[in-house]
Specification:
68 residues; mainly alpha
């Protein structure tokens, strides 16, 4: 094997390592975005349920207000 062949393989291997690192980074970014999206979804559900509960609790008080 000549020096040129080894240099070509080294460049190819270096490019492969760089591509794999890049792919791993994109996967981690996608995982983070998915988790962040899920967190926002859960916060919205919590706020919605809290609001619904508050409105449900106001119902009986409103009915009593009409009677009294």
């Amino acid at each position: 094997m000549g020096q040129s062949s080894l240099s070509t393989r080294e460049v190819t291997l270096s490019q492969s390592i760089s591509a794999n690192s890049s792919a791993a980074s994109r996967i981690m970014d996608a995982d983070f975005a998915k988790e962040q999206s899920e967190s926002v979804r859960l916060q919205i559900l919590k706020q919605t349920s809290t609001s619904a509960l508050a409105q449900a609790n106001m119902g009986p008080q409103s009915a009593l207000g009409f009677l009294g």
